[in-house]
Amino acid sequence: MDALNKPNSANSAPLTPLQFIERAATVYANSPSIVYNNLTYTWADTYRRCRQLASSITRLSIAKGDVVSVLAPNIPATYELHFAITMTGAVINTINTRLDARTISVILKHNESKLVFVDYQLTRLIEQAISLLPELCPHPKLVLIQDQDESMSSQLPKEFVDTYEAMVESGDPGFNWIRPQSDWDPITLNYTSGTTSAPKGVVHSHRGTFMVAMDSLLEWGIPKQPIFLWTLPMFHANGWSYVWGMAVVGATNICLRKFDASVVYDAINTHHVTHMCGAPVVLNMLSKGKPLSHTVHIMTAGAPPPAAVLLRTEALGFDVTHAYGLTETGGLVVACSWKKEWNRLPVTERARLKARQGVRTVAMTDVDIVDPETGESVTRDGVTQGEIVLRGGCVMMGYLKDPESTAKCIKNGWFYTGDVGVMHADGYLEIKDRSKDVIISGGENLSSVEVESVLYLHPAVNEAAVVGRPDEFWGETPCAFVSLKNDKGKSPTTTTEEIIQFCKGKLPGYMVPKTVVFKSELPKTSTGKIQKFALREYAKNMGFTVKSRI
């Protein structure tokens, strides 16, 4: 057997998600691949268009390993570019469309992008970003993405070398796309979502992306040819790698330029949508709608969704699956795999169980919660907190040009996530907080997530976030930021005292917010995450709470 324990040329061909679309063009050739307003493409169309575009990209002197960026919303071009750019051997970098020009400029300088595809509504933003690049820094070429449903000027802006559709039309449909030479060739570069002040460039390989895309499909149990509504930004970890995964199952991708609850409900009904993804804030927005005529499966990940929001969403006909992943894992690697016997439990208990993040997905090697100091596994009692650590094939290759940060989080054979959680006796994990979001009050570690879950139970609360506010006696105390529901245009009358009293009946004294700040809307990243760093700064600037006692 020793002579056979080595790979050979036939069984070691590199894994790549690019092969998904090649197969889709055969199996689902005449089935719709992309629907956008009045536009519909088939999978044969999409494969051909991607190859044509890839051939045109190579004519712009883009070579293997170069970074090509995309600054565009969830439109057909963004979907196609995930395949077309990487078919050239280049690395795709999708940029958050809600970033400011300065941050985009920093990203382009850091990744040395050679080419940027830009949506017509974002041309001024990219021009501002380019103008901020240092004089000696190479400036990327720009390609304009126009919209077929908008009246466009026939004159190409002078800063742009071509238009998207012109590149597609002039490309070679028989282009022999470039396959990776190794599993470990990079395919995508994503920047962390901006909840910290210094986003880092996360590099993923063809192998890792292939694995997480297949794994996410399997975990969710997605059937062939679902109708997938793009409510999750494609720039967010490549749509949790579902951009590539939807080609596996021959899905119909319904593209939306912007997220609006009424538009989403119209799309669900018009296209008979079966699947969609979104952060918990999306659930909260959808939970205010009307009951659905059919079941829609929705995958949510990010901050743990409050049980109250889960209850309201599922009561409308959404089937919610809760999962967990990071930019550094390229997609979802932990999911709350549902057990049939849980269906017999009361609805409130089902919601509590569903709010847990769950167990590792099939392709993940291992998941644990450890003491960050000793590295030892914590007790599986659902109480003892530790840091969530992961290992498996879809963990990032590292942070671009940042070996120090890479070494800090990848150590001892694990990726240290920075998330604080507990492991329950049944092996299901539950996030309690980000390590930086844990509030330490009087020596007690306080989970902001638990306080937020209680706040969401209040009938007047729309959104809630809790951070620490400096306190001269306790060190810090919980400070709640709350937005309220507006009842038929009337100004809400809920008071600070009412919120605090509500929490006192449901939380230990030290966890009850000592300060409540009402906001019309809480600050969020473009992926729907509440920007707690901004709220922490706000609370810090409020100064110390005085004579606060439990």
From TrEMBL:
Q: Which organism is it from?
A: Tagetes erecta
Q: Which GO terms describe its molecular function?
A: (E)-caffeate-CoA ligase activity
Q: Which GO terms describe its biological process?
A: phenylpropanoid metabolic process
Q: Which UniProt keywords apply?
A: Ligase, Phenylpropanoid metabolism
Q: What is the lineage of its organism?
A: Eukaryota, Viridiplantae, Streptophyta, Embryophyta, Tracheophyta
Residues annotated as domain AMP-binding enzyme C-terminal: 450-529
- Provide the protein name: 4-coumarate--CoA ligase
Domain AMP-dependent synthetase/ligase, first and last residues per copy: 22-400
> Family, per the entry?
Belongs to the ATP-dependent AMP-binding enzyme family.
Instruction: List each coiled-coil range.
Output: none
Q: In which pathway does it act?
A: Phytoalexin biosynthesis; 3,4',5-trihydroxystilbene biosynthesis; 3,4',5-trihydroxystilbene from trans-4-coumarate: step 1/2
InterPro entries noted in UniProt: AMP-bd_C (IPR025110), AMP-bd_C_sf (IPR045851), AMP-binding_CS (IPR020845), AMP-dep_synth/lig_dom (IPR000873), ANL_N_sf (IPR042099)
**Which Pfam families does its entry note?**
AMP-binding, AMP-binding_C
